Amino acid sequence: MKAIMVMFDSLNRRMLPPYGGDWTHAPNFARLAERATTFDQCYAGSMPCMPARREMHTGRHNFLHRSWGPLEPFDDSMPELLKQSGVYTHLVSDHPHYWEDGGATYHGRYNTWEFFRGQEGDAWKGQVADPEIPDDLKTMRHALYRQDWVNRQHMDTEERHPQTRTFDAGLEFVRANAAQDRWFVQIETFDPHEPFFSHQRFKDLYPHDYDGPHFDWPDYKRVTETPDQVRHARYEYAALLSMCDHSLGRVLDAMDELGLWADTLLIVCTDHGLLLGEKGWWGKSVQPWYNELVHLPLFQWDPRTRAAGERRGNLVQTIDLAPTLLEFFGLDRPADMQGIPLGSAQTREAGLFGIHGGHVNVTDGRHVYMRAPVSPGNTPLEEHTLMPTHMRGRFSPAELSDISLAEPFTFTKGVRTMRVPGRTFVNAHHFGTLLFDLEQDPGQLAPVTDDDAELRMAGLLVELMRAGDAPPSQFVRLGLPLTGPVTTEHLLVRAQRDQAARAAEELPRPEDYPEGRLSLRTPLTALIGDPVAVEVLRRHVPGLLDSELLQFVRGTPLIDLAAMAGGVLPPDRLRAIATELAEL
């Protein structure tokens, strides 16, 4: 028995033909759906990238206990369990986060691994001189952005693109080992994650008139671009999605050629989606986790059942991938693994998902309940880890100055974790607690106030949090009971309805505000450099100039900062600032 997992990053379900996508060119996803089982109710769990991968290894959620980080010493890793049981495991990937501080323990769980450089500003090619960068719409011009333009010079053909090289290597492994037994290969590409860099033959699939600035890397923020610019970015994403479809087709061709359908499990999956202007948002992580982000595509071919063209409506999650692979190779699930094999008769009533410090969300397939913090401070928020690293750095001494040891959790195998005060960039309290009825409102455009439905969903949420041994601090942060039943006293949708409505207000366009020598379009650097304008900022946005955030957004106009950080600069405050600046 053999297994292949093809994994994409930020793959949008609704753009794929098997899920109703009728304008994208993705014939191989349609071909896959004819051959495999398509899951209609697959939800993400922990977000974003590395939290999702931790639960794909461990079969349990990450986000209630800690943020982005490596595997922990007490974690059960699916590839490592396979390796220890005589199943050869191999990883090929161009996903750069595996090789940063916050992901550095994942690839070593496989027998062998290969990495292909260049994605999303990967610190790859060294160039002292600044690269040539076209005029574009990106405002967050951090070091990754500069490095990405250095890297692109070395990916000037489709053959040199890291996605192509990743699939080349994955197929090389498959062909070299097709006659062997008991192996698992994970072919994982960072695409179609931003930046949406693809080559011309894929762009040609989406002809359209556009003469605006370069735009293939939206910032994570509210949409402030024109409709033509939004449409162009969506086509750039679609072109990269079509490149992913082409790579998927190469895997399907190899399975045909080598006769692997007879004895090889195939899983095609992703970690989360991406907002491309839907609901007025770009990206992820800075807004609530709407279905465009968490309702995922998932396909499986199981040679034991040979269920071709089947669609399944049971609720599944990414924590189910690890137990699926263990079960396929005849291994028992570790006691701490909470996922369910995809082919199992066992089902779940509800699924939990979220990001550390954000909403804690639950769905039963009919309703989605997004529980916000009960207080504006979003406290208490704690990190529980023995691997104190962020995405691209270690915890600072200041973060570790208030360290303590927590009692063991049920899944830490008797080990106590460090307990450190947590932090978030965006406070989910601003958006309020939200309840959506997907049957009546599949686009999640109109949250409902329904005490009975909220009471039931809050009960499911608490049940799943308790089953996952969530830290007591999470119950306090969310205003939910650590023990005992959820009652009407714990409901929040009605209490937070006004703040949710304010957060949902559309951000006015820049031209709707007064303008003068200085305006909302003026970069923060220039405003800070003006002795009068800086006092306007101090008066209306106290604390901004002293925030660590400032080092990342100094070149950003206020209108774009408002689009990124909901609640910091609401429309009425922006108007007051714009009026005072225009008078200078």
From TrEMBL:
The lineage of its organism: Bacteria, Bacillati, Actinomycetota, Actinomycetes, Streptosporangiales. The keyword Transport does not apply. This is Sulfatase. Keywords: Hydrolase, Metal-binding. It comes from the Bacteria. SUPFAM superfamilies: Alkaline phosphatase-like (SSF53649). The keyword Metal-binding applies. Residues 4-330 form the Sulfatase N-terminal domain. CDD domains: sulfatase_like.
